[in-house]
């Protein structure tokens, strides 16, 4: 009898304990099923970091590729004296009268781009302009105040415009000529524009022009507040249809991390170019 009374007393308590235990288990499961916001954010951060690392690796590979191409190019060119790596010439006519003597890229005006304060103004934001073709249909000049906002996101379309002097031919390393952008596509997204394309040799375009474009692109990608004043001018001699070279000037605003003034001869090792019409002969 006493035993039955004890059972009657403890039975309700046991039921309460079981109910409480069940509630605890259910709550635990519901918390887990709801997900941990901190864990979700951590996962998202890892994904973003992975994407950044992938882009950094790609950029490093591209820069290494340019370095390797420059090394290969150096082997194909005769050694030049130190004095021949720079030029006192500063005007287009001065540069047009220079002859290639073994150094494809030379420094102009002690590497000073010589932009004025007005040239370096950011008051109007980022912009790019392409001067009209001249009376012979030749490309003339391209200017820009570059910023990350101008950089394209779309894939580049094939080029169809043939610049003056376009008499291309196959070589052991690819093609003699490229349709060379004055301002590279990766900087402004300007692609099949006759005012931005010239007949340039493979070595002029890649690695020499590309190396400077990659340096500028890298700088611009670091911050949306980075600006670079930039000008690219093909240099023609007289009425010739193929440029003798191209002058590139650039200066980053406020810090001079990008700062150069160079002239690149439009030559290709192993070939003699007739600049009057773009025809060529293999040496």
Poorly predicted regions are 1-34, 75-84
Rg (C-alpha, Å): 32 Å
> How many strands in all?
13
Strand adjacency order, main sheet: 1-2-11-10-9-4-3
Mean pLDDT: 84
Distance between the termini: 121 Å
The CATH topology is Extracellular Endonuclease, Chain A
Choose one word for the global shape: globular
Helix content: 25-40%
Q: What profile does the largest beta sheet have?
A: 7 strands, mixed
InterPro entries: DNA/RNA_non-sp_Endonuclease_sf, Endonuclea_NS_2
Domain Type VII secretion system protein EssD-like: 123-252
Signal peptide: 1-28
Keywords: Hydrolase, Signal
Could you please describe the fold and organization of this structure?
- The chain has 283 residues and is of the alpha+beta class.
- Helices cover 36% and strands 21% of the residues.
- It contains five helices and 13 strands.
- The longest helix has 40 residues, at 37-76.
- The protein is globular.
- The model is unreliable at 1-34 and 75-84 (pLDDT under 50).
- InterPro entries: DNA/RNA_non-sp_Endonuclease_sf, Endonuclea_NS_2.
- Residues 39-50 have a biased composition (Polar residues).
- Residues 123-252 form the Type VII secretion system protein EssD-like domain.
